Amino acid sequence: MSKYIDLSYDIFNGMPVHPYDDKVWLYQDKFLDKDEYNNYKLEIGMHAGTHIDTPMHLTNRLTYINEIPLERFIGKGCLLDVRGEKLIDFKNEYTDMVAENDIVILYTDHSKKYGTDAYYTEHPVVSEALADFFIQRKIKILGMDLPSPDSYPFTIHKKLFYSDILIIENLTNLGRLAGHKKIRIIALPLKIRAEASMARVIACIDD
Question: Domain for residue 13, yes or no?
Answer without folding.
Answer: no
